[in-house]
Structure formats: structure tokens, C-alpha cells
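Field log, afternoon session.

UNIT: design team B
ACTIVITY: writing a sequence onto a fixed backbone
BACKBONE:
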């Protein structure tokens, strides 16, 4: 396999991916960069101002904490949109050579797509590796490569089973320890009341589905920051087909419902108790508590079911970072912001209490206070007694430089299978074919195990 790591090849490949993105092929659209000048950070009276694009709930409070504790560096928070909206603006800024912020909130899965454009600064020379031990190994591996560090982790989403304890008790159910037991619970519930479902599969939630594939031992992708033209795509395999067919069979047999992600139908099913369980990331309780506030106190958390009894395989959905862009004029100060803005206890009081984030900053995540923290939504129990061990056992998961396109492809093909237009096996094969062709179309060398 050819290995290319020059800046020229990175730039060429990044432009190829970004060009297709501008045509709508990676689920985002081009727009004006949104007002923040590159490296807006400048020195005024010995104070460096660092421009930050971020959209965490209550992130202004976190910025305020940082600014109150620093005299020489101040953060200017800019609302550049959420997720894909902000990423589209960043792509535009990187392509035009101006308009990027100093620091941006970025999901773990999006890092390769901007690193391949030479859009992210290696902050290892600015002390990033000094804090590597503050984070789980599997998370740090996703932000670094061969000593280079492209972002500082903030939060993650270890997946667990959240369930209505009152309804489980009413119908004589116990939290499933294996996926076979989960199916048995679904069958028992349907036999008792055909209007109730053990859960609803979320159509259009590729990130959660990839987390479930990861939890089954799957590794759909392989990508190395240092070899930007090479990618491994391994979606059509026994593990992926096992997961897809498991959920497809449950849907076909009427044992679980199937609803669009974030739809009114899904929300209503959770709120009314029509769906007794949801397999979710650790950051989702904030959303659930809004959707199902009338059932607060009735929910509990259990470990995700295992494919084989006695296993301890975990999956992750989501997680984000702070990355310094290559357009910054203040690399030292920007790296300091990325490292320190969530790198202490005080900002995490906001992150946990107000934003419902699940920290990967070990001094907080592994503290006794966090582990034992009671949650009113979960009946005063500590959900973190489930989430924290899960977060420590997640296997590393690599992403492609075209993750948005990959997710949209997965969503489309799985939805087609649920609609009866193809089988789940055919969906896996079609996802593989489309992703391979896409990668090759932007000049990448593809390995298919």
C-alpha cells in the first residue's frame, strides 16, 4: 500500500473531500464563516483574546469560569451554529484561507475530516502530551498520532440500557444481561401487552448504531492521521451483519418499534411508557429528562447487554473535543484554552450539572463524588456506577475523513432495509460498496479486509 504524508497530498485530498461536501454529498452546506476573524486573538495590553466556536449547553458559563481564572488569556465565545452548521463554516474558512476561529468544539468523529485538510494545529509542542494521562487511553488515541495531538477530549458517550423500573416490575422483567435475554424480554412484554415495546430502534441514528457495532467487537473503519490517502473500510462483515440482523429481526417480528431519531413519535413513546427501554449514550439523560419529565424517578440504568454471557464489551456514541485551527495567530494561548477550559474541577460543575455532559477528564470522571452522584431522574441512584466502568472499557474506534457521508449512507441503507426494500445483509453490502467508491472518488487508497 502506498503511503503519502506530505502537506501537498493532504491538502489535495482535503480539497477533494471538501469539494464534494459543497455539493451536499457529506450532509452539509457551504455558508459564510459567521463573523469570527482568523486568530481574532490578538494582544491588547498583554492580554491575548482567543476566539472560540462552541455549542455545548451553558458553554458561556464555562467560558466565564476560564476568563475569571486567567488574566493573560481571555476567550471570546462566538455562536457559529451547532454541529454540521459550524463545520460547514469552518470548511469554507479553511478553503478560503481566512475566517476560522482559534479554537473550535469538534466531535471525535469529525477530527479526521479537518486534519486531512491541514485544518488542525498539532498542539503537542504546546504541552498537550503533558495531560495525556488525564484521559482514558481509548479517547486519547482518537485525538493523537505518533506524538502529535490534534485536539483535547472533553466528553464521551458510553452506551448503557436506560429503562422504566416501574414498568419492568409490573411486567416481571429484569434488565437483560445478554442480547438473547433482551429478545426474551421483548417477547414476554408483547405477550402481556401488544401495545408496549421493549424499545424503539432509532432510524437515522447512525452514530448510535456504529456504537452498537463497536460493542459487538466490530471495527468498521481504519484510518491513520499520518497516512491521509489510505483508509480501511470493513462494514460488510459477520459482526456488522449480526447486529443489523438482530435489530431487523426484532422489528420484523413486531418485538421492537422503529421510529425516526428525535421524532415526535419516538419522544411520545418514551414519555408515555410505550417504550420501556432505550439503549443510549451517557449524555442522553438530559434529553430524556425533558422528553419524559413526568416519569422522572421511574428510570434506572443497567449495563448494555452482551453478545456472549460474561463478556465486557462496551460501545460509545458521541464525544467531543476542543481543537486549535491552523489559522490561529496565537497557537500558545489557543492550546492553553483547549487544554484548560475543561481541565479542572470548576468548569465541570457546569458541564455536569447544567449541560449533562459525561466527562472523560479522569480527575473528575473517576472521582468518588462523580461516581456516587445521585440523579433525580434515575430515582436518586447513581447512573455513573454503570457509565464510569463502561467508559473505561470502550475499545478505540477510528473514523474516516468523510464521516458525515458515511453516517448518511448508513442511515439511508438501514432505513431502506427496515422499509422492506432490501435485506439487512444487502444493506451492509451496499454501505460497503458506496463508501469504497466514495473514498476512491476523492483519491484515497482503500483496503477491504
Amino acid at each position: 500500500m502506498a503511503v503519502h504524508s506530505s502537506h501537498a497530498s493532504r491538502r489535495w485530498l482535503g480539497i477533494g473531500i471538501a469539494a464534494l461536501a459543497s455539493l451536499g454529498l457529506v450532509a452539509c452546506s457551504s455558508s459564510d464563516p459567521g463573523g469570527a476573524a482568523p486568530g481574532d486573538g490578538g494582544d491588547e495590553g498583554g492580554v491575548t483574546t482567543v476566539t472560540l466556536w462552541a455549542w455545548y449547553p451553558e458553554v458561556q458559563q464555562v467560558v466565564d469560569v476560564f476568563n475569571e481564572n486567567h488574566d493573560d488569556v481571555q476567550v471570546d465565545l462566538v455562536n457559529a451554529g451547532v454541529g454540521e452548521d459550524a463545520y460547514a463554516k469552518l470548511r469554507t474558512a479553511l478553503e478560503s484561507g481566512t475566517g476560522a476561529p482559534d479554537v473550535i468544539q469538534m466531535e471525535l468523529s469529525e477530527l479526521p475530516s479537518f486534519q486531512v485538510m491541514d485544518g488542525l494545529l498539532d498542539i503537542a509542542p504546546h504541552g498537550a502530551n503533558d495531560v495525556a494521562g488525564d484521559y482514558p487511553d481509548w479517547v486519547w488515541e482518537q485525538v493523537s498520532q505518533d506524538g502529535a495531538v490534534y485536539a483535547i477530549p472533553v466528553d464521551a458517550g458510553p452506551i448503557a440500557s436506560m429503562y422504566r423500573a416501574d414498568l419492568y416490575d409490573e411486567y416481571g422483567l429484569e434488565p437483560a444481561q445478554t442480547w438473547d435475554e433482551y429478545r426474551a424480554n421483548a417477547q414476554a412484554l408483547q405477550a402481556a401487552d401488544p401495545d408496549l415495546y421493549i424499545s424503539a430502534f432509532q432510524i437515522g441514528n447512525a452514530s448510535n448504531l456504529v456504537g452498537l457495532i463497536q460493542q459487538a467487537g466490530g471495527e468498521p473503519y481504519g484510518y491513520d492521521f499520518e497516512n491521509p490517502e489510505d483508509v480501511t473500510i470493513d462494514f460488510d462483515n459477520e459482526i456488522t451483519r449480526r447486529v443489523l440482523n438482530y435489530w431487523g429481526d426484532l422489528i420484523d417480528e413486531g418485538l421492537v418499534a422503529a421510529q425516526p431519531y428525535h421524532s415526535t413519535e419516538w419522544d411520545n413513546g418514551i414519555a408515555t411508557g410505550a417504550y420501556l427501554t432505550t439503549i443510549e449514550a451517557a449524555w442522553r439523560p438530559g434529553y430524556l429528562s425533558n422528553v419524559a419529565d413526568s416519569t422522572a424517578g421511574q428510570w434506572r440504568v443497567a449495563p448494555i447487554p452482551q453478545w456472549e454471557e460474561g463478556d465486557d464489551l462496551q460501545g460509545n456514541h458521541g464525544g467531543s473535543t476542543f481543537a486549535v485551527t491552523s489559522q490561529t495567530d496565537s497557537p500558545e494561548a489557543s492550546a492553553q484554552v483547549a487544554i484548560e477550559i475543561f481541565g479542572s474541577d470548576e468548569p465541570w460543575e457546569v458541564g455536569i450539572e447544567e449541560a449533562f455532559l459525561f466527562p472523560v477528564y479522569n480527575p473528575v470522571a473517576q472521582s468518588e463524588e462523580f461516581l456516587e452522584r445521585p440523579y433525580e431522574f434515575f430515582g436518586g441512584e447513581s447512573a455513573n456506577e454503570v457509565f464510569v466502568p463502561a467508559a473505561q472499557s470502550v475499545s478505540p474506534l477510528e473514523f474516516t475523513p468523510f464521516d458525515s457521508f458515511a453516517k448518511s449512507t448508513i442511515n439511508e441503507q438501514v432505513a431502506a432495509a427496515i422499509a422492506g426494500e432490501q435485506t439487512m445483509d444487502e444493506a451492509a453490502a451496499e454501505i460497503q460498496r458506496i463508501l469504497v467508491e466514495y473514498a476512491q472518488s476523492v483519491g484515497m487508497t482503500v483496503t477491504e479486509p
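LOG NOTE: The domain at 48-157+318-366 is CATH 3.40.190.10 (D-Maltodextrin-Binding Protein; domain 2).
NEXT ACTIVITY: expression trials, pending approval
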